[in-house]
Amino acid sequence: xxxxxxxxxxxxxxxxxxxxxxxxxxxxxxxxxxxxxxxxxxxxxxxxxxxxxxxxxxxxxxxxxxxxxxxxxxxxxxxxxxxxxxxxxxxxxxxxxxxxxxxxxxxxxxxxxxxxxxxxxxxxxxxxxxxxxxxxxxxxxxxxxxxxxxxxxxxxxxxxxxxxxxxxxxxxxxxxxxxxxxxxxxxxxxxxxxxxxxxxxxxxxxxxxxxxxxxxxxxxxxxxxxxxxxxxxxxxxxxxxxxxxxxxxxxxxxxxxxxxxxxxxxxxxxxxxxxxxxxxxxxxxxxxxxxxxxxxxxxxxxxxxxxxx
Length: 309
Ligand SMILES: Nc1ncnc2c1ncn2[C@@H]1O[C@H](COP(=O)(O)OP(=O)(O)OP(=O)(O)O)[C@@H](O)[C@H]1O
What we know:
Layout: E1 40-49, E2 52-62, E3 66-71, H1 78-85, E4 93-98, E5 101-102, H2 108-114, E6 115-118, H3 130-135, H4 150-162, H5 178-191, E7 196-200, H6 208-223, E8 227-231, H7 235-241, E9 244-249, E10 252-258, H8 259-262, H9 265-272, E11 276-280, E12 287-291, H10 294-304
Parallel strand pairs: 3-8, 3-9, 6-7, 7-8
Antiparallel strand pairs: 1-2, 1-4, 4-5, 9-10, 11-12
Helix pairs in contact: 4-5
Bound molecules: adenosine-5'-triphosphate.
Adenosine-5'-triphosphate (ATP) is lined by residues 49-50, 54, 72, 74-80, 233.
């Protein structure tokens, strides 16, 4: 949790398209950013369903070498946006490029080599072993007739190891708990060896130790040059783990930039309707969220449920 910070710019209440041009991946050897790094860039994307704009003119970016958290209230459009950025759903308007190439003109196999998506509650009901599920991540790297190689097997084993699931390798996926399945899906995405890793609520179902380990792993991947974009419900985890945040509300980016600069008390109150402030975590030195609504919630509960005398 104490990895180097990136130099993001804050662009509060503006678009995210131009707020982080100075980003490049952190080179683990010398920390010099490379400005030609592969990156995702969405420009003015809109998605409308039944006349309602679920995504409304969004500009955003996911720079290489950075862990970007996508946050916003329930129904803000986070999952909808991530599916577009992963190339699963097309926007009605606007463009998405990855390393300068239009995502929706890219051959599907090439897109799958570049971008991995771990969806919320992603799983499979097929009776596959954990190893077989993770090996699916290697599919985009194979030609039609090629078979899994020793290299594939070692990548799969290493992915399982990184998420702490090696001892489950031979288990059937359907026999795993929600949190265990979540970690296997992350391993599948790691086996894909993408430039951009997109995750929708990767800490769902995980206990606190597994949450912190997962976010530490994602931060480590970013430190080694990957672009990581994760929707996180838990604003505290987002504050503690991310380099940058994109704040989505009602389908629009209301703020984007360096985490400490963006997540101000005013922004949190405005978007989440909560009194909270970032303070320094005495254990990690990273930001942590201190919220101040519990008292008022308790007071409200006490008023509506007066104790019987
Ligand atoms: N296919 C659809 N048809 C109609 N409305 C949809 C469709 N998909 C999503 N929505 C609506 O779009 C809005 C955004 O949904 P989305 O799942 O992207 O939000 P979210 O920010 O991920 O929410 P949460 O934090 O609750 O997971 C919601 O109001 C949802 O009901």
